[in-house]
Amino acid sequence: MSRIAATALLATVSLPVFAVPGSEPQSAWGIAIGARYADIPYDTDVDQVMDITPLMYFHTERFYLHGLEAGFHFWNDEKHQATLFSRYRFFDIPEEFQNEVREDSFDTGLRYRYIPWDNAYLDAEVLSDGSGRSYGHFRYGFFHQEGALEVRPTLQIDWRSEQFNSYYYGLNQVDAGADVGATFGLELRYHVWSNLYLMGSANASILGGDLAALPTLDSRYNLETFIGFGFFPEPSERGKLWESDSLEGHYVRLATGWATESNIGEILAGDRVKDPYGNQLTSVFWGLPLTNELFGLPIDIYFTPGFIYHHSSEVQDPTYEGVLAVKAYYNFNWPIRWRIGVAEGLSYVDEITYIEQIEMDRKGYRPSNLMNYLDLSFGANLGDLFGIRELDPLWLGYSLHHRSSIFETASQFGRIKGGSNYNTVYLQWHF
Questions:
Q1: 8 Å CB contact between 392 and 380
Q2: Backbone angles phi, psi at 358, to 5 degrees
């Protein structure tokens, strides 16, 4: 396929990795990463594309974050469920075009689920992209466990509207009618030890017969696979959803900091280059406790959403950033209480910041609003530091606010290498 055709908005609908399962017990939390491989259905010289895909999991009775999907159950009883959700749709074209052409997105949908018996479900759902191009699925799935192995097969009928097919499969150049296809999926999860699990999935799909005649397509058969590993509660903890009073130790963290042109390796080595324009951020994070033990070690795990305000400067307007992350803390005494923290998640900015834009310009990339998020922190307990027990709920420390894209391995982050860094000082209050 020519470069002109490839930039004519190629895209394909890919099933989410580890879609929300049926009625089996859910775990309150989880975090995982793996490699996703997907066939390219278009007439290109490259037949497959690979993405490194980080995944987060957080389940309450009403709200859930499950891999590449998040939603709210506004009707949820023993047999019936109605959900408003958003699901990530991958954009499967050759890697060389993925930084320039962006048609991957979080599509919005409604789903009705009927649960005829334990561990099985029937779904009817309809979704739309940001321009109202609709598609839908009718799905049957069930859950089975054999020892340490969990198995989730699905059989799905796929419907796509004329507008959707003409834009995505006809490349907005060839008219395509609505079609009906099918997908068979299989998801596996194996409990290795303690909180460690191996994960894998495969989805084989077939497009409707009318689409096979499109000159833009090379094949109507597509295969998507995923293999990775993750950290989840042990099997004995299955079915314990997160509840607001499940654990003590909620926190609010306030931080302020300044941008640096140094990369994360240089910062950790103490080589920090000051941003000459003094670009600054202020952030607030809320910590929801998930567990106080990981692999038998005293490690506190939190689900932590955050809001970040990037201040205006002579080179940028005010910019807003939202973060969803899972953060782990290791606490130790020497001779007062200290803690080291590491967070992994997703970050979205409404406008690209100056410090990130200049790096993208220097490397010749188109920037991405959605990026991988890391937070590294080190703090001390103020009650121990000053010998005042009333200050025990307070921690003071340093944190590194980092956005990046996993070294050109992820199409969802724009196939970019690099990002932005801010050195911050934080005050964290536990209650």
A1: no
A2: -65, -30
Is 413 within 8 Å of 373 (Cβ atoms)? no
Count other Cβ atoms within 10 Å, centred on residue 412. 26
Q: Per the confidence metrics, is the pTM higher than 0.85?
A: yes
CA distance 248 to 256: 26
| Residues 322-376 pLDDT 10s | 999 999 999 999 999 999 999 999 999 999 999 999 999 999 999 999 999 999 9
The residue assigned the tokens 């993405």 is: 51
Pair 326, 31: CB distance under 8 Å? yes
Measured CA angle at 85 (ends 81, 90), to 5 deg: 130
**Torsion sign, CA atoms 262, 266, 269, 271:** negative
Interatomic CA distance for residues 263 and 407, integer angstroms = 13
The verdict on whether omega for the bond into residue 335 sits within 30 degrees of 0, i.e. cis, is yes
Quote the CA–CA distance of 87 and 137 in Å, as a whole number.
13
Contacts of 304 (CB under 8 A, 6+ apart): 253, 285, 286, 287, 288, 323, 325, 326, 327, 343, 345
CA angle 185, 76, 55 (to 5 degrees): 45
Q: Which residues contact 77 (CB under 8 A, 6 or more apart)?
A: none
Secondary structure E strands in 143-195: 144-146, 149-160, 179-193
369-410 pLDDT, tens per residue?
Answer: 999 999 999 999 999 999 999 999 999 999 999 999 998 999
CA distances from 119 to 24, 278, 324 (A): 5, 55, 29
Residues 6+ apart with CB under 8 A from 397: 339, 377, 378, 379, 380, 425, 426, 428
